[in-house]
Design goal:
Layout (H helix, E strand, L loop, with lengths): L11 E8 L3 H7 L11 E9 L3 E9 L5 H10 L4 E6 L2 E7 L5 E3 L20 E6 L4 E4 L5 E2 L8
Antiparallel strand pairs: 1-3, 1-4, 2-3, 4-5, 6-7, 7-8, 8-9
The structure holds zinc ion.
Zinc ion binds next to loops.
């Protein structure tokens, strides 16, 4: 089988097992689709995978992810694995799972919700269903089922 030639990284983060086609979305929510960043980002789209058939894979050099970023990845690509690389070795491996509580990473679709009226209130959701993915707004009880569209 042909292997994708992406050089292994010495330090940074590898996000593997992203469902095929979602890699660009991950890139976007992490803000890596801009010119100003000063490190190398490699995105493999439609890479062969024994487990998934096809997958996307993202390698980010010199950068660790914040907790909120890991949670956002879980919303886009549940089941993805996030490996922290140091000195060429995997220091930590995290499996992206849907956060039970999503604070400040998705926004409420209800325009009249207190979290959308300019009040100093942070968007706050509770996971109510994993399949399909559904979150309930803590303030107005509105159920959010189109998570991808409402990621902040
Ligand atoms: Zn709301």
């Amino acid at each position: 089988m042909r292997e994708l030639k992406i050089t292994p990284i010495v330090k940074g983060t590898v996000i593997d097992h992203i469902p095929a086609g979602m890699g660009l979305k991950v890139l976007k929510v992490l803000g890596l689709d801009v010119q100003e960043i000063k490190y190398t980002v490699s995105l493999g789209i439609h890479v062969r995978s024994n487990k998934l058939g096809w997958k996307d894979i993202l390698k980010i050099e010199e950068r660790e992810l914040k907790k909120s970023e890991v949670d956002k990845i879980a919303l886009i690509a549940p089941g993805a694995t996030i490996s922290i690389i140091e000195k060429g070795e995997v220091k930590e491996k995290i499996k992206a799972s849907l956060p039970k509580r999503a604070k400040g990473i998705i926004k409420c679709p209800n325009p009249n919700c207190i979290s959308n009226t300019g009040e100093p209130v942070e968007h706050d959701f509770v996971l109510v269903s994993e399949k399909p993915v559904k979150y309930r707004c803590k303030y107005c009880e509105r159920i959010l089922d189109d998570v991808l569209k409402n990621i902040i």
